[in-house]
Amino acid sequence: MKVEQTIERCRELIAEPLGAIAERWKESHPGGRAVACFPVWSPAEVIHAGGMLPLGLLGAGATVELTHADSRFQSFVCSIAKSSLELGFQGLLKGVDGLVFSNICDVARNLSSIYKRNFPHFHVDYLHLAQNSTSGGVADYMADELRRLARGFEEAFGVRVTEPSLAKSIELYNAIRARIRGLYAFRIAEPQKLSTVELYQILRAATQAPPEEALSRLDDLAAELPAREGRPKDRIRVVVEGAFCEQPPLGLLEVLEEAGCYIVEDDLFLGWRWFTSDVPADGDPFRALGQSYVDRAVPSCTRHEGREPRAKGLIEKVRRSRADAVIFTPPKFCEPALFDFVPMRQGLEREGIPHLLVEFEEKMWTFERTRNEIETFVESMLFD
User: Fold this and answer.
1) Angle of helix 285-295 versus helix 138-157 axis, rounded to 10
2) Does the model's pTM come out above 0.90?
3) Which residues, including other chains, have CB under 8 Å from residue 318's CB and lie 6 or more apart?
4) Is the pLDDT of residue 304 over 80?
5) Phi first, then psi: what are they for 123, rounded to 5°?
6) How confident is the model over 40-45, as a mean pLDDT?
7) In order of start, what are the domains of the chain with their CATH numbers?
8) What is the SS3 assignment for the chain?
9) Residue 119 · residue 144 · CB < 8 Å
10) What is the pLDDT of residues 264-299, one digit of tens each?
């Protein structure tokens, strides 16, 4: 079936080094530039509007050994920062021209300067994301930051990011995000037909391909998936929360599903699906992106939201997806996720929503203890 072929192509793509993907794209785009973005929020539209290839810098998982990066960080730093830096030391980003980081946490903030110091040949920019969502000037501030980012690309690479080209890129990424929202809605409705392991591979491949190619692949899946066969199983429906930045090992997602969970909502890959609805393509596109960062944002631990309690977005996610429980999956040493765990847990307890905490790191390779914890949690709900 075409669905299986498409998912297999996604598996092949995400197994390739990021640099190899960039170099292959450049073969058909002479003089082109590739820019990789560290999660959580990725300004892919601005990169694409300059004729460049946006890519997701999502760490290396278990594919590389840390032989250099450990000496540049403290021991209590998250795995994704170390493995992302290691990609540079091992030459696996050869072909990538620029890197964009932002102030999603202290580690990401420092990773920008560490890359600049160790790899001066990269164009490295740091996006100062607004943290005070209640300010009346936050949309204009974000628009100015995006314009500054665009000027940096123009000076470094000689490209031009015009308002018409940015408006077209916004329309393209609106279409991609709409297809992704469609896949998420499909999984909520029929999780037996689309596993989260498969959806994860599909979404990760979308961050490592030209957006036009990603959109075509997502269109194919939207057309083919409804006819896919899948027998419902006796599982609980869960929301996975906390894996917004460091990517969980596929083995962990597999264990969650094998242990009796349908994952019906998550916060994976927020960099490519930050907006909950279409960004307006008319008017000033920079300001439209800035305003959308404020008003169309997926709730995340990486940004203080002063307008509503932190648990509200998570509870809405549980209700919308008809989930039975929440499984918190913060990466080890992830301060934003661990800081927000307490108020979110308190909110769930007030609503009577069961929850479980399972920490991970991207190089995790054994899951037996985790499997036992999840199976016990599932059984306590199924047979209560």
Assistant:
1) 130
2) yes
3) 239, 265, 326, 348, 351, 353
4) no
5) -85, 110
6) 92
7) 18-159 (3.40.50.11890)
8) CHHHHHHHHHHHHHCCCHHHHHHHHHHCCCCCCEEEECCCCCCHHHHHHCCCEEEECCCCCCCCCCCCHHHHCCCCCCHHHHHHHHHHHCCCCCCCCEEEEECCCHHHHHHHHHHHHHCCCCEEEEECCCCCCCCCCHHHHHHHHHHHHHHHHHHHHCCCCCHHHHHHHHHHHHHHHHHHHHHHHHHHHCCCCCCHHHHHHHHHHHCCCCHHHHHHHHHHHHHHHHHCCCCCCCCEEEEEECCCCCCCCHHHHHHHHHCCEEEEECCCCHHHCCECCCCCCCCCHHHHHHHHHHHCECCCCCCCCCCCCHHHHHHHHHHHCCCCEEEECCECCCHHHHHHHHHHHHHHHHHCCCEEECCECCCCCCCHHHHHHHHHHHHHHHCC
9) no
10) 999 998 888 889 999 998 899 999 999 998 889 888
Residue of 257, 256, 210, 246 whose CA lies nearest to 332: 246
pLDDT digits (tens, 9 = 90+) for 195-237: 999 999 999 999 999 999 999 999 999 999 999 999 999 999 9
Residue with tokens 């991609």: 176
| Of residues 270 and 190, more confidently modeled | 190
Output the six-digit token pair for 57: 């810098």
What does the radius of gyration of the chain's CA atoms come to, in whole angstroms?
20
In 3D, which of 371, 321, 382, 319 has the Cα closest to residue 347? 319
Q: Tokens for 291?
A: 């305003």
Residues 191/253, Cβ–Cβ less than 8 Å: no
91, with CB counted inside 10 A (0-12, 13-18, 19+), is exposed
Percent of the chain with pLDDT over 70: 98
The 10s digit of each residue's pLDDT in 119-170 is: 999 999 999 998 777 788 889 999 999 999 999 999 999 999 999 999 999 9
The arrangement of strands across the sheet holding 98-102 comes to 53-56, 34-37, 98-102, 123-127
